[in-house]
Amino acid sequence: MRRAAPLVVMAAALAGCVGLSGAVPLRPGLAGGETPAAIQPGTVYRWSVSGEFGGQAIPSGTITLRAVSVTAEEARLTGTIALPLGEEADLTPERQREAIAALDAVIGRDTEAEIVDGALRFPAEIVLDADRRAVASLSLSPRVRHEPHDCSRVPGDCVTRTILPDGSAIRVEIRQTERDGIWTARSRADDGTATTTRYSVDPSGVLLDSVLVQRAAGGRGTFTLRRL
């Protein structure tokens, strides 16, 4: 289950907790001390996602989330991660089943993945509290809880615990600063994963752009998300 830790960071990025700016420009967003505006029910958010891990390119894709439930206490955004397989992919039913089984074996759980219109699709969800900090999320990693939240837009030092389905927890220490609407976060998890990030969020506190550089036991990775 520990192999899910690098993907947990990616899920948190959707809420604005993580994301290192190199050549990729980040659009400035909500500054420190500013209160997020309301999220309107039915709002659809889309990001392009790309990157590499361990020297291997990750297929570029999209993340689409829709605000399906919004109250004064929380907002629930639900949707999919879609990774196109390319025109040369063998998409026979047997190969599809084999590919999904292989993916589930690598991730270590049933990812609920399916192949639709030539793309590998996974369910995705994030639950934000009133301050737009994630308290639960689902991506390629399992559905997890963030206690007390994911530390999004918390200046200075913050500690969050990612609670996995089996009850085990990953403790993450994060130090963040903000300048001109761009947040910088440096984090270290107790499983050894270290992340250096920069990110921005829109007036509602939802991620705009993020570039994440991560060092974990499996290697070094760079992940880019950009609002479409």
Distance between the termini: 32 Å
- The number of domains is 1
The shape, in one word, is globular
Helix count? 2
- The average pLDDT score comes to 82
Range of strand content: over 45%
Which class of secondary structure composition applies to the elements? mainly beta
Low-confidence segments, given as residue ranges, are 1-22
Largest sheet: 12 strands, antiparallel, barrel
- Kindly state the percentage of residues in helix: 10-25%
The total strand number stands at 13
Radius of gyration, in angstroms, nearest whole number: 17 Å
Protein name: Lipoprotein
Keywords: Signal
Organism: Jannaschia seohaensis
Q: Which terms summarize this structure?
A:
single chain; 228 residues; mainly beta; twelve-stranded antiparallel beta barrel; 13 strands; disordered N terminus
Produce the secondary structure layout.
Blueprint: H1 5-15, E1 44-53, E2 56-70, E3 74-84, H2 93-107, E4 114-116, E5 119-129, E6 134-138, E7 144-147, E8 156-163, E9 169-179, E10 182-189, E11 194-201, E12 207-216, E13 219-227
Antiparallel strand pairs: 1-2, 1-13, 2-3, 3-5, 4-5, 5-6, 6-7, 7-8, 8-9, 9-10, 10-11, 11-12, 12-13
Organism: Jannaschia seohaensis
Keywords: Signal
Protein name: Lipoprotein
How would you describe this structure to a colleague?
- This protein is mainly β and 228 residues long.
- Helix content is 11%, strand content 50%.
- The chain has helices spanning 5-15, 93-107, and strands at 44-53, 56-70, 74-84, 114-116, 119-129, 134-138, 144-147, 156-163, 169-179, 182-189, 194-201, 207-216, 219-227.
- Strand 12 and strand 13 form a beta hairpin.
- This is Lipoprotein.
- Residues 1-23 form the signal peptide.
